[in-house]
What does this fold into?
Amino acid sequence: MFDWADPATAYFWEAASKEQLVIQRCGACRQYQFYPRPFCLSCDSDDIGWVAASGRGTVYSQTTVHLKSAPELGLVTPYVVAVVQLEEGPRLLTNLTGEACRIGSPVQVGWRSRPGRAPVPVFGPVRS
Amino acid sequence: MLMTGPDRAVFISGVAEAPLGEVRDHSELSMIALAAREALADAGLTLRDVDGLFVNYLGEEGTVQVGEYLGIQPSYSDSSDLGGAAFVAFLGHASAALQTGRCRVALVVYASRQRTRATRKLNHWNEKATSPQFEQPYGLPAPMGQFGLLAARHMHEYGTTPEQLASVAVTARQWAGLNPKAWKRAPLTIDDVLESRLICAPLHRLDCCLVTDGGGAIVLTTGDRARDSANTPIRVAGTGESARQWHIPQLPSLEASPGVAAARAALQMADVGHSDIDVFEPYDASTISVLLALEDVGFCARGEAGAFVQAGNLTITGSLPSITSGGGLSYCHPGALGILLVIEAVRQLRGQAGARQVPGATVGLVHGIGGLFSTAATAVLVRG
It folds into this structure.
């Protein structure tokens, strides 16, 4: 079910299949990290665990893509690809959905389903 | 042991472009053969003298395939894949190999027919990633998507404008107008760039480099052999390289660009300052690439490159003549530009650049980038 699965990434996609965004946190130095690895990038500890992310973050950068996406991605041109900085610190690549956001805008996680695969986290404006 | 002294300094003693633009009557291998033999003749050498071979992107075990084609059995082979920056990094790798006696004559070659084979797609993903699972679903076209993200962040942090980005493309086109081999030579205006269609906003079509065929060859050797060169040998005075990230969210900040470490190392090794540089050849994969290069190398403070370009500093009469061939934006972009940046710098430092010659150029700085703004390699080249 999970392409390129390894013990670290499989946990992420299992949580994603329940629409839960999880990131790693080091038990030794308490740093958060994304994407998942079997060790801590900050202090080289093996004591790496998982926490639920708040799902909140801010837009670090974004680009509106005016090219056609690969058909299997199902993205309708133009679409927005962004780097979002999570409240906990790590950044990830994502799509922005819903009304337009700017760099620095607060965003929160949502999920986009994929046929036969775990949904992927996408982000949109914070709902009040 | 590292050899030093005048005879152990490393020189570029021969350069040649492969056929450029749209190449329908050659294969990549025959393009390489033409360029290699011309560059070797320029150096007063032949293929029989070559015992070090440096290639990237030329198939599996590229040095083996190219070596067989050229009839070379190298004692030293290098196909380090640093993307388009590899060919600038090879100047450092070849210097080390030559100075330690691993080889005596180093040949760097590249050719691509990405245009006529239509192998370059703007909407291809990060498909070569070992682990594309966290990026592939989002449809970021590589590499212009990455450059779009960098440009948007640069605009946000520093107030860089679309007009300033466009002025890079306009400057490159002015240089291309002076280069008979340039693919695009007709004058270009800021409005032309801003009115071209958006690709990955804020980047327009004319903020992005060309897709052409092309390639080239470079011959390096030590001082004792460089004397055979028909032309002024150009000394490789300093080199540096760095690799930072594959996935763009892993770049901590614009200030942490791989170009910073690469340029610092090259300038330090060459023992020259920014004011010593007469000609600057940045890898202009996109207009933002040039602003980042100016700031990464340290010609401009962070956020000041846009105004610096707009004020005309990169033109033939400016304080830092740059992109003197017309660059990837207007001269040629055969998938990996690095080799052509080095060839252009050598021509400028030899005084062979014709209408686009920067008068009296003696110190050049080449700054290559590669991958998805992943790698950088810098070389300081000196006449004499």
Remarks:
- The interface with chain A takes residues 122-123, 125, 130-141, 145, 148-153, 156, 197-203, 247-250 of chain B (CB under 8 Å).
